[in-house]
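User: Please fill in residues for this 151-position structure.
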């Protein structure tokens, strides 16, 4: 199973905010730290704000911060929220024209179990778990301990 770039960016953005602490972070500094598109990250941030994962503050001194503690943000929940289609193959989604082999197809069952297992493993992790090597992540992302991005 492969997650979209959109979900990848959502997880990275959340990780950045969790590592940076209580201060505000800008989309520009997050995009620069990861070397990703600011425009794409803006769309992701908007959706995460709508979903209640982050708070956005507008204005000259605005930025982003987590809307709730990292321990309360489940990885599986974020993936389900950002992924529009978690179907492994088309025979797993309800179709008007079912596959002729589906009533006897073990492949259908195996792939559905694999998809469920994938999501089940993600459900065991929170954002807190992803950022446990906090000081190492701060170094890699150039975030100073006080939340300011280092130049």
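Assistant: Residues filled in for all 151 positions:
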């Amino acid at each position: 199973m492969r997650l979209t770039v959109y979900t990848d960016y959502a997880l990275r953005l959340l990780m950045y905010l969790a590592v940076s602490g209580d201060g505000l972070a800008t989309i520009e500094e997050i995009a620069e730290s990861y070397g990703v598109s600011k425009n794409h990250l803006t769309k992701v941030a908007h959706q995460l704000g709508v979903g209640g994962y982050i708070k956005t503050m507008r204005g000259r001194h605005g930025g982003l911060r987590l809307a709730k503690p990292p321990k309360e943000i489940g990885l599986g929940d974020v993936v389900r929220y950002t992924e529009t289609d978690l179907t492994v193959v088309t025979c797993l989604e309800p179709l008007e024209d079912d596959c002729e082999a589906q009533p006897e197809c073990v492949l259908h069952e195996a792939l559905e179990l694999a998809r469920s297992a994938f999501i089940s493993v993600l459900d065991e992790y929170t954002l807190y778990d992803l950022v446990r090597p906090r000081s190492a992540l701060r170094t890699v992302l150039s975030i100073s301990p006080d939340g300011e991005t280092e130049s």
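For context: The radius of gyration is 18 Å.
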